[in-house]
Amino acid sequence: MLLKLKFNQQRRVRLAQGLWLLSWTAVMCGAFVFCLGVYLKMELFRRAEVMDDSDIHAVPNILMMVGLASIGTNWIASRICQDSLDESRFPRWRVFMLAWFAVATLLCVLLVAVVMLSYALQGRLEESLKVGLRNGIRFYKDTDVPGRCFQKETIDRLQMEFRCCGNNNFKDWFEVQWVSNRYLDFTSKDVKDRVRSNVDGRYLLDGVPFSCCNPASPRPCLQNQLTDNSAHFNYDYQTEELNLYSRGCREALINYYMELMNSTGPGVLSIYCLFSDQMSVIMSLRFLQTSVEGAMALEDPEAESEGFLLEKGVKETFEDVKVKVLTMLKAAQINPEAAAAAEESCGGADAENGGEKTPVKTSTPAS
């Protein structure tokens, strides 16, 4: 046996009481983890217009699933604790104990997975924001195109809220036409020259939208002709500290979301507490189950009994579980030869029954 301990009636009662308290602590941690997943999910949905990949939703999805599963499994564990010392009510839980341990173990595995995913998806998040922001800037001018008319407001609000400009920096706006053709005077020589000078016929500017302006700058906002030193008084494009946000929106959003996805602060603490609490609940409930079943086998609820984690060693238990699983899989498989033989035998029997006519006896009424 693995970790065999002796339990008398008093120790079993204390174990049940402590396990009940641990179970409800895990329920509260699970509720917090679920709320954390919902909050992260909502934050990702808020910026869905500037993201190009939905795989990053795996982290909040797992958090919500783990939170709900933790609430359910640990609530059941608390009920088992209440009924463990009652001979008439505890046996009804014995059927569900194996399934409970399987779900609780899977829950611990998912908790480890969500922490690893939060770090592994950093590159995916960065690439998703890179493509999404690039498309958002490219479609900034399409205010009259169905499905894209919201992009201008989204990008403007994003740049003002996160105090950023462009994808990597403000120069990204120099490479796209962000002014719609409906607002361009094509009778103007300057507009015609700019359009003709571009291979793709786009109207490019060395300027940025108003949302890139930094209100903390003492100088009035310079949005246009940013690379022309002669266009502004006392201005040097190379050395002047521009009154624009210097940080790109991709960097700003990555920093913001990674703080959430890494579950810093209370998030990491709650996941760690839930993992530790869940492992404690699993081990304590196993000791309680085996010790109570041992006392019931002795037909004396107050007798001293043995409690243990595994009836055999780890290797032997693994082999037993492996054999049981393989047996169940073999039993679930259908043998094609046996099925064909059965169909042939059924078909032959039907043919024989169809070819023979069973005589019908008629009885003549007695006179």
Give short descriptive properties of this protein.
two-stranded antiparallel ribbon; 57% helix; disordered C terminus; 2 domains; mainly alpha; 367 residues; single chain; 10 helices
Protein described:
This protein has helices spanning 9-46, 58-83, 97-120, 122-138, 151-162, 189-197, 249-261, 266-297, 314-332, 336-355; strands spanning 5-7, 305-307. Helix 2 (58-83) runs antiparallel to helix 3, helix 2 runs parallel beside helix 8 and helix 4 (122-138) packs antiparallel against helix 7 (249-261). The protein has 367 residues and is an all-alpha fold. A two-stranded antiparallel sheet has the order 1-2. The protein folds into two domains: 5-124 and 262-329, no CATH class; 145-256, no CATH class. It is built from ten helices and two strands; from the N terminus they run E-H-H-H-H-H-H-H-H-E-H-H.
Largest sheet: 2 strands, antiparallel
* Amount of beta strand: under 5%
Radius of gyration: 35 Å
Counting structural domains, the number is 2
**Largest sheet: spatial strand order:** 1-2
Q: Count of DSSP helices?
A: 10
How many beta-strand elements?
Answer: 2
From the helix content, strand content and strand pairing, which structural class follows? Answer: mainly alpha
Q: What does the average pLDDT come to? A: 76
Membrane topology: Multi-pass membrane protein
Keywords: Membrane, Transmembrane, Transmembrane helix
Region (Disordered): 342-367
Subcellular location: Membrane
